[in-house]
Model the fold of this input.
Amino acid sequence: MSEAVSQKEMQQETAKRRTFAIISHPDAGKTTLTEKLLLYSGMIGTAGMVRARKGGKATSSDWMSLERERGISVSASAMQFPYKEAIINVLDTPGHQDFSEDTYRTLTAADSAVMVLDAGKGVEAQTRKLFAVCRLRKTPVLTFINKMDLPSKDPLELLQEVEHVLGILAAPISWPIGSGASFKGIIYPATREVVLFTKSDIGGAGKAEFKTTHLDDAVKSGEISEEQAKTLADELELLEAAGNPFTHDDFLAGKITPVFFGSALTNFGVEPFFDRFTDLAPRPHAYEATDKAGGSVTVDPVDAPFSAYVFKIQANMNPKHRDSMAFMRVCSGRFERDMVVKHHRSNKEIRLSRSYSLVAQDRNTVDVAYPGDIIGVINPGAFAIGDTVSMKGGFDYKPMPQFPPEIVAQIRPTDVLRHKQFDKGITQLAYEGAVQILRSYRNPKDPPLVAAVGRLQFEVLQFRLKEEYNAGAAIDFLPYRYSIYVEGDVKGLSLPMGSMLALDARDRVVVLLTAEWEKKYVQEKNPDHVFKDFVQ
Ligand code: G4P
Done:
């Protein structure tokens, strides 16, 4: 292959990629929307609703339900499929009981995020947390306000909520015509073009039929009632006067979110949303890295040779197969199977021969991948979260942010004679990023604490300690549910009763708290100290 062809191919392939994650609170409709994306991309012929999940799911992916229901093999982490002209890489961000560090880390591999809100509920807790990561990384966010077929909050109120709670400007690209039983479709305020939907078969198994017309014509034909037209006119007038003008640059800079309304279950507004999504969402961007001298370098996705970083490691829970899968985001260049790459942290060369792409239909061996793609590599123990690999070497991608723990526990071996194996196991698992180890700031000699974002992590920890280190573990959960990092000196810090000051593995100070309001309280009580939700 000549250099010129390769450059052209790199440009074309990179331009097609849309790598994104869906952020939402459980039950807002993330799985349903993902399924509809598969429906509209032609990956599945009909969408059957995902029902199996509610009953005792204990998997590492919300997509496992898709897998069970649809017979699709979706290995946790990413799916790739074509949607019209684009190639979609959708990253899994587990949200139910599997919410964990992985959910956050996965977001770092996305070029954009789709925030799904339940129109009846607005911005909920988990959405807030995930949005904070998008803000930290300046990830552009598109908003899909879902469940418009059910009684909803006032759409203007929803926009205000997004602005006030999340601190991002909201610009409606589409606007709902009615809600609940009277939800008719959407209008594009800029052109007064309306898209009227016909209800598809029950549960939106097939694609929705829709008709595009002008508002005036829809009123004339009676498809939109006079009353609905009046409400709509008032709302659009308000939007014109007080709305935020949308610019693509502000969206890319994370300052404004384009907002779409619809109903994933009944397919209302889903296809127009996906179509606009592929236009608006950014293609793979350049990544910032640090060179050997500590200087900053920008790695261009097209011009630089292959490089990637590990954002997630999934241990194999099957004791017969001890290996684990390292998931990498391709940042630059073309990946080819069997490539020998530099592993920057160890300064060794590694052949990437057992590489997989996780396509909706199957787990396929991946021979070639481009910027924005996610590849899974069987991990022979060489990779850790945040590791950089590349053809060229000489730089490191930014380390993963550290996410505030939500569950803290004391953990001890059930058999004291096996405490050595137990300690080794905990250290290794903390190194892999499954849990983090904290020490008391005031009494560093006290037994260390284990902390994580999700409760599932503790189940995994207990399981793996037993399976891999033959060390039983007893876990006593502590009452801390919230935490906030302190930057700089902690002298003179005034903390609420019952809180605890701890040090993480890199000696960063974190305040462990029992109630959410205490986070605000700590900041107000200590105006001279600097607090952070995440640390890089
Ligand atoms: P999640 O992945 O964000 O947790 O949400 P999921 O898609 O599983 O949706 C949660 C529930 O909300 C499901 O109902 C789903 O059918 C429903 N839902 C999703 N989108 C819409 C929508 O646009 N309109 C309406 N009316 N419902 C919607 P469930 O009863 O909990 O499960 P199921 O029995 O329907 O599968």
